[in-house]
Amino acid sequence: MTAQPFTSRGDRVPAPLLVLAGIVSVQFGGALAATLLPLVGAPGSVALRLAIGALIMLVVARPRWTGRSRRDWLAVSAYAAALGCMNLSFYGSLERLPIGVAVTIEFVGPLVLSAVLSRRPRDAIAVLAAAVGVVLISGALTTPWSELDLVGIGLALAAGGFWALYILTSGWTGARFERLDGLTIAMCLASAVVVPLGLLSAGSALFHPEALLKGFGIAILSSVLPYSFELLALRRLSPQVFGILLSLEPAAAALAGLIVLHQRLTPVQLVGMALVVSASVAVLTGRQVVDNEPIAEQ
């Protein structure tokens, strides 16, 4: 029987509060990751997050490894690849962009996916509004072209694309694996690939006490807590409400960046963020949430 974390007490907490707690946890985990990046770089930071998170999830979920079909392993392997690539590209963008900017640009990935799947005319308009928002928050209209961090913007866009792929593969995996089994196995598979990259990139710095402590904090804030909160909330929350709450991710990221990293966005960037959030509310409220798998991962 798979362990269900926080089940008895968590069910007493209103579902919207659980989602909000997960959103805040993810974004403050991202802000903490930004302080780890100078120590071990993006590959090292992702390696610590995934490895420590996988160890914790192995204890919590105790997944079943045997008796899986070839299709099961293909699904969970695709999920693991999306998870690893999404985190590597997102953490790479955090090395170059404020977290509020990176998350807002990344958020376009699942927004476009939802619009494509829904095929509603109003969603196409929302995506155009989000595109305008990305232009504003990237600084393209207020910063000379030569000074724009195109690599950082590109990495954030790539992270958004992998986030969309993560959502699709989480659905495939959730249909074949019980509860947290698919997620836990995917984290282990992703760790097996990313940890060697982290070791090659960061070397012995990966085992520095400060790096390990921050890595543990990131694993808790960005993986264990939000996954558990979302799984509890999605049992009692409609997809429409979940979509509205999920749209607060960029704002939560900007708040985390301000409090933890002292990053301030300009008024133009805030307008751009508001456009992306508004577009997300319009699109994601009509989105179908995948049961038993977390989807607000970064």
The SSE string, one letter per element, is: HHHHHHHHHHHH
Oligomeric state of the chains in view: single chain
What is the first-to-last residue Cα distance?
28 Å
**DSSP, total strands:** 0
Helix proportion range: over 70%
Uncertain regions spanning at least 5 consecutive residues:
1-8
Shape: globular
Number of domains: 1
Largest pleated sheet: none
Structural class: mainly alpha
Question: In DSSP terms, counting alpha (H) and pi (I) runs of 4 or more, how many helices?
Answer: 12
Instruction: Give Rg in angstroms.
Output: 18 Å
Organism: Branchiibius hedensis
Transmembrane segments: 43-61, 73-91, 97-117, 124-144, 150-168, 180-199, 211-229, 241-261, 267-285
InterPro entries: AA-Vitamin_Transporters, EamA_dom, EmrE-like
Domain EamA: 151-284
Notes on the structure:
- With 298 residues, the protein is mainly alpha-helical.
- The chain has one domain (14-284).
- The chain contains 12 helices and no strands.
- The chain has helices at 7-10, 15-61, 70-94, 99-106, 108-118, 121-138, 150-174, 181-202, 209-233, 239-246, 249-261, 267-284.
- Helix 2 (15-61) crosses helix 8 (181-202) and helix 5 (108-118) packs across helix 7.
- The longest helix is centred in the N-terminal third of the chain and has 47 residues, at 15-61.
- The chain is globular.
- Residues 1-8 have low confidence and may be disordered.
- This is Inner membrane transporter RhtA.
- One of its GO terms (cellular component) is membrane.
